[in-house]
Write a structure and sequence with these properties.
The protein has 3 helices and 4 strands, in the order ααβββαβ. It is α+β, with helices and mostly antiparallel strands.
Length: about 110
């Protein structure tokens, strides 16, 4: 069930199936989400479709056997991760020490 924001479903599934999880489990939105593409950050490696992302990440998961592999565009091999801002005050100060792979949504 999708209750609340999109992070609820994967955590609900994991918490209810923790002891019987498959070696690899992929969580992906049904429709292509703009964050998978690189249109918002042309220097990143993005994916223009869910199929393109799956072809890349399934191969990568089987090859590297990671504990956790975010299905996201990458910059220099590192996943680009997103967080929500607590406020929009002092944005420059908030972002000063951020790595280039961290993007923030305005509050």
């Amino acid at each position: 069930p999708n209750i609340g924001r999109d992070t609820h479903s994967p955590f609900f599934y994991i918490s209810n199936h923790y002891e019987t999880l498959s070696r690899h489990t992929i969580f992906l939105q049904a429709g292509h989400h703009y964050t998978l593409s690189n249109s918002w950050m042309p220097s990143a490696q993005g994916y223009e479709s869910n199929a393109e992302a799956l072809n890349h990440f399934v191969h990568l998961a089987l090859e590297t056997d990671p504990t956790f592999l975010p299905i996201m565009p990458t910059l220099n091999g590192q996943p680009i991760l997103f967080v929500d801002r607590d406020s929009n005050d002092n944005l420059e100060e908030q972002d000063r020490d951020d790595p280039p792979t961290l993007k923030k949504f305005d509050a």
